[in-house]
Structure prediction request, 209 residues.
Amino acid sequence: LRAADLARLTPADRDALAARGVVLDLDLRTADELATAPDALAGDDRFRYVRISLLGTEKLDVSKLPDDLGTMYVASLEANEPQFRQVFATLAAQPDGAVLFHCTAGKDRTGMVAALLLALAGVPRQDIVHDYAISAHYLAPMMRQSAQLAAMASQNPRILALQGSPAEAIDAFLEALERRHGGAAAYLRRIGVSEPELRRLMVRLGQAS
Prediction:
């Protein structure tokens, strides 16, 4: 399950996630983001909580963000290789149950992880792009209400231009993944995901038995 920040979950929300079989909560945010918006599942013993900052830093410096999402996503493939390896090793180590992974907005760090998982699962590229692009529609109310995102925008007004989910951004990510790295599986192997880990992922994604 791909999600945004979980700070506002109610007890009923947590019960609903447990009923849906969620057993692992993978938080892709920085320590700064966690301090501002604590994860509501982290203290619930029904869920295993793991935090891996996919940005490769524990402090979110919005002044250093690029002007467009596609550039950020493509650069992330190489800049954050150790973090991607850790994320996918963690996913591979979860033998059963559902996994929820989230960041703050639920479209950038989670969008890249989701795109890699969908590519591994053999989902057509146009469907991966659509899955990402439609996020802007569903996230619009949260974007308007989020105090954390408003604070980030006040630090750097350019971040307002990064709050959508344009199809071309994830398409650039998928193009770089294929053209520069040989596809999702080849990329994960190159950054250190082992063959047993990759096989466990493929089994979980229905691509191996």
User: Anything to note?
Assistant: The chain has a mean pLDDT of 91.
